Amino acid sequence: MGTARRERQAGTRSFLSLIAVAFLLLAMCVTLVTVTPAAADPVGGCTATKGAVVAVDFGPFHGKVERGCDTTPTTGYELLHEAGFTTEGTQHDGPAFICRIGLGSGTQYPTSDQESCVLTPPATAYWSYWIASPGQNKWTYSQYGAMDRKPKNGDVDAWVFGGTDIGGTTGKPTFTPDDVRAGGGTETPDPGSTPTAPAGEIDVAAAAAWVNGVLKDGESVVDDGADTANYLLTTEAAYALAAADGESVTLAKVTAFLAAHTDDYAYAAGKEQAPDATAAARLALAAEVTEADPHQFGGHDLIADLADNVCAAGPDSGSSTPGCTAKGDFRNAGYGDGQALAVLALLRAGAVPPAATVERLTQLQCDDGGVTSILIRPGEYCDGDPATTGLVALALREAGGHDAAVAKARTYLKKAQSENGSFPGYTGATAGSVYATAYAAQALRALDDTAQADSAVSWLSREQLDGGGFGFEEGATDPALYATAPAVLAGAGTDLVRLTTKEPEPTDPPTTDPPTTDPTLPAGEGPDLKKGVAYLTSGSNLKQGQYYVAGTGTTRADFGLTIDGAYALAATGLNNDKLRGIVDFLDKGGKDGDGRTLQDWTGTGTKYALGGSIGKAALLAEAVGRDPRSFGGRDLIAALNKAVCTGPSKAPDRSCAAKGAYTYAPSVFAQSLAVMAQLRAGEKTAAQEPIAYLESLQHGSGAWPSLIPATGYSDVDSTAIAAMALDLAGGEKADKAVDKALTWIAGKQLSDGGFPGAAGDSVNSAALAVQGLSLDAKHYAPEIAKARKFLAGQQNTDGGFNVAKEGQRGSDLRASTQAVGGATGISFGTLERSLTGTTPQPTPSPGASTPPIVTPDDSTGGTGGIVDTDGGGSGGGALASTGVQIGALVGLAVLLVGAGWRVVVVARRRTSAGGQI
Fold it and tell me: How far apart are CA 917 and CA 914, in angstroms?
């Protein structure tokens, strides 16, 4: 379903004309394609606030750092090409990986004698992708491929040839973002002008009426289909009612309800255990807002319990406490907002928060002033959002002593505000977010930026629905309490620092119940698998009902992703007809739009047979009752047995990593799938050496690395899949290895239920962790339940799933296949789904040191020695023009003739967020 080496899908811009004639198809009938550059935008056209810059380091090829500009960036891929660079893919994946990069009409690197580009390049020598946001002078390993990344104005991208580990903690560029930024980073980003939005006010009374209507029995919020209250939303209702109505009978009932259910909400682990810090803080604030005593609320001293449960260290210390990410965390806070709410709760109670807890908030601030919602550790990827930034700014301002951090947050907020007054919910979002705009407005008003706050409230007023409530985003039609409550506070001109009211005098309760309106929330205790399957089988995703493509605008099948989708459908059993369509396509020689079949992807019968890919296909056959010895016209088991290495290959041959590895199997994921395929085919003897090799890769901690050969990096995804393989193998040694692996996986669970991956708080990693931990479901039931809830929280309205909790929003096919199948907890080793009674589907027709940086024609040094792609010719030096290069490799040639020829290429990505083998 996923591998440690993530391949991101790509798309391409529309073009006006395309005329192409291709001939001389030889060898494997696969074409290498060179994408020619557009005329590069002048670098001077980009500034700190307009356009994006990309730099490519040709240092390993005795060249220089070359940079270019795109004044209207759309994707990282288009930025690369609009800046004047060319790229080339691989034979095996076509334009699915960026294997070579060149400048203009110059030579592309690595050259064919350095890298054949037949298969995916190794992790020790490939083009890695790095990004930096406006105001940031540190590189971050991109979570997304070039075609999935959407650069913003002022962003900087970099491509570096060499090696990285799977998390991108090594191999960073040797130059800084400011070295290649437009103007050399000397321009000061615009702090943001005052939006010119029309005046407008929120109808606070109407919003309060809507909130009253949401309450069940006038005292709590209950989700649709649930039997118990949603305590978090009930606290939100309390804040909204306090802001709108002040003291009221309804607010008194809500507060009394919360007090009566304090144990259920904040002390679910037991009265003597550390509370859920976010829950305890929310209850304390509700008490403080209504002038109740947080020291005696629901039978608990919430303030003392918060202050007494501050983390002394994080997991890296080797002696951390559960619920701790780093020193200074409130235990079980989970997110940045929980940390900020706990600090506010202590401050409002007159207590002095432990210094480490306030300092922890400053550690969540990114270089651009934004604050991330994730309780990251120092040095981890930081991507702020306006909502968290607003709340943390309020907390730091109230705590005092952190004026610089508050000033940076203020600048970030002013810059993030759109012309219409709104704020985006996350980096790269194009629509305004009600939740983010409300919290930003509260902070800006408290910081005396009245004009910006008024503009934000004006935008919110235009988003208020007829019933009085608010949806989550711009143009939403369904009201949600989580968005409405902060909007009420913003409309009332208050915030959680200043919000207060008096306890109402006892009165008779209302004789009739208010009407009930349920908010829109994820259904059930885990993800909605029906919606997930609907997303995976929709016509826009599953082409001709039978395969997924390898990038937007291409007809080339992504066979690895297609098998991932089949695994997910097999695990759920919710659309067996579509599952059969995929299986028939693969089994009966179905061809994609490029005329390729499954065996073109596996390389079966060729000298480039990919053991992991063969195993992945064979395992699918076994799972659905097909014969893996005759699947897709080939005996996959015989091919897999033949692919077992007898020893390591000698350079430059990189087919075999070691004895017991499979040929061209670059990851633990590939090794594990192939082992399971052999075992399920009854080839236990043939699988012994591969099993022994897989066992040898386990670290002393119990974890497995992602890549083969190992880089020392430990990976949740790979550990889970290896555990499934060894669980199937059985035996005393294997069983001990599995137990050790599951213990390690459980220890990596984050406080929100998710698991860390290279993409952050990763959906892929959480889903695979569920499958792995389900090997001992009884013992790890609490961890599994938390992970499934996390997955539910990352499911979007279309049924698909985000790649990770942080970063770009939007459903991702690869993450969704893993989330849907993984949430079932079924191991690949035992996955079975009968296709009996299904309907055949039609088969689609074929259809090292700092590199020298020189600026041409600039005797003063200009931008710090950066070669600009618009500076004439190819930049000179070692990268002088060699003429237009036509893609050619291993007897394969193609002639492309035409105008406006544009071909999609997907960036080579290596992350543990999933992907095909």
Answer: 9
